[in-house]
Amino acid sequence: MATHRLDVLGEVCPVPLLKTQQICRRLKTGDTLVVETNFSRSVRNILDWAEKNRYEFTVESTENGIWQIFLTKQE
Amino acid sequence: MKKNQFHFFLLTFLAVILTGLTLAHFSPLKAVYWFFGLGFGFVIQRSRFCFASAFRDPILFGTLSLTKAVLLMLIISTIGFAAIQYNFFVQGLTIPGKIYPVGLNTALGGFLFGLGMILAGGCVCSCLARIGEGSVIYLWTLAGLISGSLLCIWSFGWWEQALPVWRPVFFPDYLGWGPALIAQVTVLAGIYFILCRMERSSIDKRGKVQRGNPQT
């Protein structure tokens, strides 16, 4: 049940999702990855991908134009 | 901390209305352009619509939602543009639209544009939306966009002469208006349904793999 963090502030599409995928491959069931991004299109990209690949996800807008995405690996 | 930006919104909103009214006073059509432009900008920003994603994501990530959105947009605009063009045709006027010859210059231009789009991380309209959101780095993209476009306009004639070009093909000239419209919409809708099926089958397959190997 580890929590990993990924800071991709300032990175543009498609880098945030590519890095998210890299880390997600190493996650174990129940592990959580917190992705922080300021690229609005990437938020949608990551959520689309998470939904398709069965990750549990929530998204939170922490500051103006900054989002935190919580991805939890499902069984 | 999230800052409340309501007063900025109010100021901008007032400026927008005032600019619209001023434009309407001098040239009503410009006011229409102004409000339509702002409307398009709003939709592009809120929907996070992005042509770069539509063409890149199916290959890179296997997600098709934006590709399907682009196809829907093409279907709707095909019908809309056909209506506008037919209206001009019936009145015996020159048909508006980008009816240009196809040639190697088209393919080369498409390749260069695609390269720029991927490097910039967005298509032209989403880059403009990023600037509107306040992303300073995208001002560089805008500078590149303007200088690239100027370079293209300046050298356009040369490309058409230097590379083989076929004469323009306008489907209604060959098929008639009705069949041309039906053919184009059918092909686009066909691609849309193929993508829907691909999306569903990829999810089914993933589901089966996951059920078979719970440890992965």
UniProtKB/TrEMBL annotation, chain A:
InterPro entries: TusA-like, TusA-like_sf. Residues 6-30 form the UPF0033 domain. Pfam families: TusA (PF01206). It comes from the Bacteria. PANTHER family: SULFUR CARRIER PROTEIN YEDF-RELATED. Belongs to the sulfur carrier protein TusA family. This is Response regulator SirA. The lineage of its organism: Bacteria, Bacillati, Bacillota, Clostridia, Neomoorellales.
Automatic annotation (TrEMBL), chain B:
The keyword Membrane applies. It holds the Pfam family Sulf_transp. InterPro entries: Sulf_transp_TsuA/YedE. The chain crosses the membrane at residues 34-54, 66-88, 108-129, 136-157, 177-196. Keywords: Membrane, Transmembrane, Transmembrane helix. This is Uncharacterized protein.
